[in-house]
């Protein structure tokens, strides 16, 4: 983002997978590795295996800006598979400074750290 209103796309740097699936995979990996939960990512090609909870995430901002700030703004919700009523929900606003605009590998590292932090928040809300 430049000036808060202009989106500048890199000609060469692209995500290697669809962003929704990549974030889903990263959250599931973080939940599985760091919380003792068995988590599965979203895949449009196959239904999930039997599970107890669903995690819904709505990404509102996932960006780096010209000032070197990297932002993840999202809302997440945890429901049980037998009810659509949330057992936990939260709005997340994570911002980090220090990114060098144009360093897309660095941007991915910062965004990955923010996804990991959001995953820790989600893990704390899931009943064990």
Outline:
This protein is an alpha+beta fold and 128 residues long.
Describe the protein.
The chain contains 2 helices and 3 strands; from the N terminus they run αβββα. It has helices spanning 19-35, 104-125, and strands at 53-64, 69-80, 86-97. A 3-stranded antiparallel beta sheet has the order 1-2-3, with helices on one face. α1 (19-35) crosses α2 (104-125). The protein starts with 18 loop residues before the first helix and ends with a helix.
Q: How are the elements arranged and paired?
A:
Elements: H1 19-35, E1 53-64, E2 69-80, E3 86-97, H2 104-125
Antiparallel strand pairs: 1-2, 2-3
Helix pairs in contact: 1-2
Which structural category do the helix and sheet elements fall into?
Answer: alpha+beta
- Work out the helicity level: 25-40%
Number of domains: 1
Task: Give the overall pLDDT as a whole number.
Answer: 88
Which strands sit side by side, in order, in the main sheet? 1-2-3
Characteristics of this structure?
single chain, 128 residues, alpha+beta, Rossmann fold, 3-stranded antiparallel beta sheet, 2 helices, 3 strands
